[in-house]
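**Entry details**
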Amino acid sequence: MNKAGRILSIDPPNAIPGGEVLIECEGLQFEDFDSFGCFFDGRRARVVGASSERVIAIVPGSLKKQLVDVYIENQGARSEPEKIIVGTKLTDDVHLVANPAIDPKDDSIILTRSGSRNQQLPVTLLRLESDGYLDELPAEIMNPTGLAFDSHGKLFVSNRADGEVCQINGGREVIPVATDLGVATGIAFDSEGVMYVGDRGGTVFKVSGLGDVETWALLEPSVSAYHMAFGNDGKLYVTAPGLCSHDSVYRIDEDGLDEVFFKGLGRPQGLAFDTDGDLFVAACYKGRHGIIKIPAGKDEAELVVSGNGIVGLCFTRQGEMIVATADSIYSLPLETYGTLLD
């Protein structure tokens, strides 16, 4: 075996630029960094740690492909490559604080320029078309946060500045449908089409079709937002990011009674289910940042996409995972299908 050894695995096997991956090796005769390098399709990665058995590398940006060859060079020798999927940046002219949303009518991606609280930006809602064009929508809504489509394909947006949820018609008309919702953040619809809205101050509201609001559940307050999604079991799953490294994902039953579903995540934010009932959460787990997968029926978790500053995600009809940081959107072809689309 040559001095570059052999790559055994890359963990996780998916990342966005800037994400940290662990490369397990055998036979690597590492001595110093002067004659050593880790490369992604020929681009040198920043290496933050290396030994004869493991290399910790940061995924470089500006890669031209999504399926990328990773290899090690050491003392004039090169290892055989291993593959990793790296997300393609779709746009960076955004400001998201929660999940993006897929429009079920045309598969475009609805995004926000949310701004700081009570900051009115000239354009706050955007539509990323399938051809890559970023369309600025004329609808005027301050601090858009949660995005959700109902079963009829209507878009609803929470306004955390005014504590309301609005329906957006044609990308232009803004119709308030529920008010007095505190710091309104997350939105989710159950299987009957009933809307639920999270006030980060500690309340989940149930909103009738006529806009009547009732307190449905009480949780720990969040420092930023409530993020919500219904599971295949009909229960509502909520993250309420705080300042510790052992935050929980809460599960709320049809009577509004909550329990801890999973504990041990650092600043968990946007979440989404796939069709198998697996839960994906933007969070930090065991010191590693990215998208965490909690398989259905299991009390365990794993990092499946590495990346820093991730606030949310969603799935397209084609099985792509759309990953959102505060200022950028990425696409990864993971063949994972979500429950957001019929």
